[in-house]
């Protein structure tokens, strides 16, 4: 297993790069975000990698700009029907925080809008990963979308429990709590907004 490469960036293509390490050039397929984060050709670079060997014994390297991005990639390829190239496509179509947020909130539209993915695959990804994804594992600096979700996660859960005790089913209670929640809201504030919304 090649965990990362640290060498000289010698070439960039639209979806792959070549990194020279001790005289050997490694061709690595990378996400859009990784490509954006890379330095200029000729400079030193470090990227995290995943070595894939398919059924035809073809060997490919996939690269990521952070451990968090690689971690999400590894989660995605555990989903039935999602291979390395599909996972890379998903990570290339949106920011990591947006993807994680869509899985947590069970919203298939984000992943389903990625080229070549489709809604059925998106729904399968959400079904298989929604209970495995831990938001704190994917927070990067300045990722306001995911940070807001993490900060509200427990409050939303607590608020939904209260709403369920008032007669709403779990799906409706969770949906309403998410709609009413704003960053830094407590469970009590979310419940108050939800009750106001129900009361019209």
Question: Could you characterize the architecture of this molecule?
Answer:
The protein is of the alpha+beta class and 200 residues long. It has 9 helices and 5 strands, in the order βββαββαααααααα. It has helices at residues 32-37, 67-76, 84-93, 96-104, 109-112, 119-129, 144-165, 170-180, 187-199, and strands at 4-12, 16-21, 24-30, 44-53, 59-64. Strand 4 and strand 5 form a beta hairpin. Helix 2 packs across helix 3 (84-93), helix 7 crosses helix 8 (170-180) and helix 7 packs across helix 9 (187-199). The longest helix is centred in the C-terminal third of the chain and has 22 residues, at 144-165. The chain is elongated, with a radius of gyration of 20 Å.
Task: For the structure shown, list the relevant keywords.
elongated, five-stranded mixed beta barrel, 19% strand, 200 residues, 9 helices, alpha+beta
Quick rundown:
Helix content is 48%, strand content 19%. It has 9 helices and 5 strands, in the order E-E-E-H-E-E-H-H-H-H-H-H-H-H. The longest helix has 22 residues, at 144-165.
Total helical elements: 9
Order of helices and strands: EEEHEEHHHHHHHH
Question: Roughly how many Å is the radius of gyration?
Answer: 20 Å
The structure class reads: alpha+beta
Side by side, the strands of the main sheet go: 1-2-3-5-4
* Counted beta strands: 5
Distance between the termini: 58 Å
Low-confidence segments, given as residue ranges, are: none
Strand count, sense and barrel status of the largest sheet are: 5 strands, mixed, barrel
Helix content: 40-55%
